[in-house]
Structures are given as structure tokens and as C-alpha cells.
Amino acid sequence: xxxxKVILITGASTGLGLAIAQRLLLEQSKRKHHLILTARESSLxxxxxxxIDQNAQTWIRTLDVTHADQREALVNEANANLGGVDxxxxxxxxxxxxxxxxxxxxxRLKQMNIxxxxxxxxxxCVLPSMREKRHGKIINISSVSGMMAMPTMAVYSASKFAxxxxxxALFYEVKPWNINVTLIQPGFIRSDGFEHVRYTELSTMASxxxxxxxxxxxxxxxxxxxxxxxxxxxxxxxxxxxxxxxxNSKSPPLRVYGTADAFLxxxxxRALPRNFYHWLLYHSLPKVRHWGKPIGSPxxxxx
Length: 303
Fold this sequence. Notes:
Shape: globular
Low-confidence stretches: none
Largest sheet: 7 strands, parallel
Structural class: alpha/beta
Number of strands: 9
Order of helices and strands: EHEHEHEEHEHEEHHHEHH
Number of helices: 10
């Protein structure tokens, strides 16, 4: 692959996507990459807010990854004017906080569509050009939740497990054309991302109602996750550096840990017998003995 690459980043106006965009913009003068930064129309103003302007080497484009016509139009534009996309960074995603019982079919499909179906569809769009040139990279931003699941995050984990499975199959399928597929697996990142987690209609009610059977699940996990993210060592910028290293690597592996805790979680999962692993994680959940009880109710096991 030549030094200059055409790089398409989804969800590039905020969070990790913005950090990746800013990191690659810093490298742009040296590497001469052409960046295509995308976001939903309602988020495009964030680029200007962060002093990112469109120029000859940087395109800013509207892209709702769930819209097939927008995906196809953008890839067609890149094919016609830039010779195709060399690196696809599938970063756009969303997270629902909900127990399985509080999830409707439309909500389930929306989560899967954004985090799994749309990245794979976008990969499908760029692959013909990559195959023709016999080189390319597809970098999918996954999560620790793609290797282990947490309560109240079932459908989010399902979407990341699906992305991991499809990416692993794609890794083997496109190797003959010198196309690399890599999953970046971040763990907890120090950010306000937990404030943007979505709730379903039923999980919203359960989170607010202390008498709901699942209220303690939400109450404790909300506090736990927010605490972990506020005090995490990793930052969007540190994960963006990992992504940049993968982008500039000649032959990156299928899976790359985005944070130190992702590595530790993976080692824990591998090292422990499966039954003990799940027993340990269950008993490590915050105040799990109170789950299923109204907040403030006495614990019959306590004196």
C-alpha cells in the first residue's frame, strides 16, 4: 500500500471518533492521508466547534450509518474522486442500558442495526474497490462487551458479539486480497460516555421506580459503570493512538486490546475455569445480594 491512504471514519464528531479524527489530522501533514470524516447531520456542527474544517485533504460528510442510500452515495463519491477507500474505521455506535425483559423487538433491532448490521454493510460497500486494488484495512471498534457481557447491557453485548463474529469470518475471507480486518477492543474509557447511554421505555421506568423488581440492577450498575469510567486510566486519546498504530501497521492482528483492562479481562476469561469465572463475576457485581429487592428493604441475611 502506498503512503497516502483514503481513510473513512464513521461517528467522527464526538467521543472516540473525534479523538481518532484529531489524531489522524495531526499525522496528515507527514503521511498525506485523505480523511473522510462523517457524522449524522445533527452532529456536523461539532466539527466546527472543534476547529475541524473541510479542505482538499479532509472531507466532512453527512452519514447516518443506518441509511443504505447514504452509505452507497458516500462510497461511490470516494470511488469516483479518490480512487476508493483504503481504510474504513467503523466507529459509530450506540449503547442501550436495558435488561432483556425490558427490551422490545424494535429497540433490539435498532441497537443491532447501528452496532452490527451497518458496519458490516459499510464494509461490504468498500470491499470491491479494496479487492480491485488488492489492499485495504477495515478497523471495527468493538468493546470488552464483545468478549464478556454485563447485566443491563445485554443487547449492547449482543451487537458487539455479532460484530466480532462477522469480523472474524471477514478476516479470513479477504486475506487473499491483502485486506486486513482488525477489531479494537476498548474497556473502560475515562469520558462522559455513560451519560449518553440510551434507555428503553421499560428500562427508563424500572430505573426510576424503586419498587420495580429490576430497580436495583439499574441503580447499582449505573453507579458502578459511571464510577469506572470517571476513574479509568484510558482516555479517548490513548485509544485513538492504538487505532493509529493499527492503521499504520503492515499486518495488524485480528484483535487488538484498546485498553489495559481489556487485556486483563481477556486473561481472566482465559485463565479461569468457565464455571468459576462466571461465579466470580456474579459475586463481584455491586451489591448483588440486594438485587431483586426494593431499594431500602432489609436484607434477611443480615443481622
